[in-house]
Amino acid sequence: MKVKKNLIILSIILFMNITNVNLQDRAPPQPNVDYPGIPCGKEHPKKEKDCTKYGTDSGMLCCYVLYNNKTRECQLMNENTAVSFGIKPKNNNFIDEEYWDCGNKSYYYNINIILFLILIFLY
C-alpha cells in the first residue's frame, strides 16, 4: 500500500513540474519567423482587451504585445504557434521582459448558427 501511495505522490509531483513551464527562460516569438507581423485589433492599444477581444474564427489569434521598450501593439499569430510558445492567460513573460497575451473572442460562428436555424424554421 505504501508503494502505491508513493507512486501516486511521485506522479503528481512530476505532472506539476511538466505543466508548470517557466517562460522566463524562453525567447519570445520572432516577427516574420514565428508570426507574420500582421497587425490586428486597435492601432494603438492601451490595454490587453484592445487586442484580445478581436478574433477571426480561422485559427488565428490577436495578441497584445508589450515589448521591453514599453511599446505596445497587436499582432496576429497562429493558434498552434501560441500554444507551442506556452502563451496562456497568465505567466506570459519571456526573456527581455517581453509580455504576450493572445485571445479570440469572435461571434461569427454563433451568428451563423442562429441564422441557419432561423432559415430552417422559416422554410
Write the layout of secondary structure elements.
Blueprint (H helix, E strand, L loop, with lengths): L1 H18 L29 H4 L7 E7 L5 E7 H6 L14 E5 L4 H15 L1
Antiparallel strand pairs: 1-2, 1-3
Brief characterization of the structure:
This protein has 123 residues and is of the alpha+beta class. It has one domain.
What's the structural domain tally?
1
The number of helical runs is 4
Element pattern in H and E: HHEEHEH
Q: Mind describing the biggest β-sheet?
A: 3 strands, antiparallel
Shape: flat
- Strand tally is 3
Instruction: Classify the beta-strand content into a percent band.
Output: 15-25%
- pLDDT < 50 stretches: 18-23
Biggest sheet: strand arrangement: 2-1-3
Give the N-terminus to C-terminus distance in angstroms. Answer: 65 Å
SS class: alpha+beta
Helix % is 25-40%
Average predicted confidence as pLDDT = 76
Radius of gyration: 20 Å
Question: Could you characterize the architecture of this molecule?
Answer:
With 123 residues, the protein is of the alpha+beta class. It has one domain (23-122). It is 35% helix and 15% strand. The chain contains 4 helices and 3 strands. The chain has helices spanning 2-19, 49-52, 79-84, 108-122; strands at residues 60-66, 72-78, 99-103. A 3-stranded antiparallel beta sheet has the order 2-1-3. The N and C termini lie far apart (65 Å). 19% of the residues are buried.
Features:
single chain; 123 residues; alpha+beta; 3-stranded antiparallel sheet; 4 helices; 35% helix; flat
